[in-house]
Design brief:
alpha/beta; Glutaredoxin; five-stranded mixed β-sheet; 14 helices; globular
Length: 320
């Protein structure tokens, strides 16, 4: 599954941007300088930055001529942000200068939040040669985050000649703040690894093991919801599922299957609307099945997402 709204759509137009030529020249100069120095020393390149409105032009726009800048819009009250942030920080160190991470607190930087048209958080954008690219919204499995980062790095190099500023071995890890180990980190790590390898059954069981000991673990809840969704759509023929739903609007099972595909494809409102419509038109076991699936999809998106809030209101109206 691609993380919600995860897309590099629009990047094919970057070659036409006038900034490309200048960006390539600056990138070549940065690479030459890095080569002469044998790689940037540990303190020379900060891979994780706290950015505000005052520092945005220098830390993001100007820096994006040398290295792709990934922007993480977050807030302290946002639980999915707390899941996603450490993953992005660790990957910034692992990618060793092929991108840098700029963290923007939306509560303190409302203007940046509005300028980027962010609708919900966490939201992740990239800036390459001064051009903003939407990447994805919401927390997501690490494997899919890596796919988007790899694609970003490839686009930056192919379209702009930007390959980042290499750092010396070990420098990346030094830039990422250490996080105290939690009691379920090992189990969550095993679940994430299973998910990354496509072992959906193993991931589901691992997340359930965490929740059996800690029912309120937000990361495990999100991971389990995503793994179960992937498991349900695995092997589906999308064309047949959508045709069945279109041909039989009253077939609740067909509508539920189509809603799963809607969500996997990033069509969040379509998935929610489809199930709410089923709930309005049905009763008894059919209505309950649609309601349960809708609540499961809410878990995938996260309770803080405004689309979930709106859908919960619509659900209440449909039920009562």
């Amino acid at each position: 599954m691609q993380p919600r709204n995860m897309s590099m759509s629009g990047v094919v137009d970057l070659a036409a941007v006038k900034a490309a030529g200048e960006a390539k020249q600056k990138a070549e100069q940065a690479r030459a300088e890095a080569a002469r120095q044998g790689g940037a020393p540990a303190g020379a390149v900060r891979l994780v930055l706290d950015v505000d409105e005052a520092s945005f032009e220098h830390e993001v726009l100007q820096r994006s001529a040398e290295v792709p800048v990934v922007i993480d819009f977050w807030a302290d009250w946002c639980e999915p942000c707390k899941q996603l942030g450490p993953v992005l920080e660790r990957l910034a160190g692992e990618y060793a200068g092929r991108f840098v991470l700029a963290k923007v607190d939306v509560e303190a930087n409302q203007r940046l939040f509005q300028q980027f048209g962010v609708q919900s958080i966490p939201a992740v954008f990239a800036v390459v040669a001064g051009q903003a690219l939407p990447l994805f919204q919401g927390a997501a499995p690490e494997a899919q985050i890596r796919q988007v980062l790899d694609q970003l790095v490839q686009v930056a190099e192919q379209q702009f000649g930007i390959v980042g500023v290499p750092v010396a071995p070990g420098a990346g890890e030094a830039e990422v703040p250490a996080r105290p180990a939690g009691p379920h980190d090992a189990a969550l790590g095993a679940a994430h690894d299973a998910l990354d390898k496509g072992d959906l059954g193993g991931a589901v069981q691992a997340y359930k093991n965490v929740l059996s000991d800690d029912p309120g673990n937000v990361e495990a809840k999100l991971g389990l919801a995503q793994a179960e969704l992937l498991q349900r759509v695995q092997g589906m023929d999308a064309q047949q599922v959508r045709k069945a739903a279109a041909d039989a609007p009253g077939d609740v099972s067909a509508q539920i299957a189509a809603a799963d595909l809607d969500l996997v494809g990033g069509h969040v409102e379509d998935a929610f609307g489809r199930l709410i419509d089923v709930i309005r038109r049905t009763a008894g076991e059919d209505r309950d099945a649609a309601r349960v699936r809708l609540l499961e999809l809410f878990e995938v998106i996260g309770p803080d997402d405004p689309r979930v809030t709106a859908a919960r209101t619509a659900l209440s109206r449909a039920l009562f």
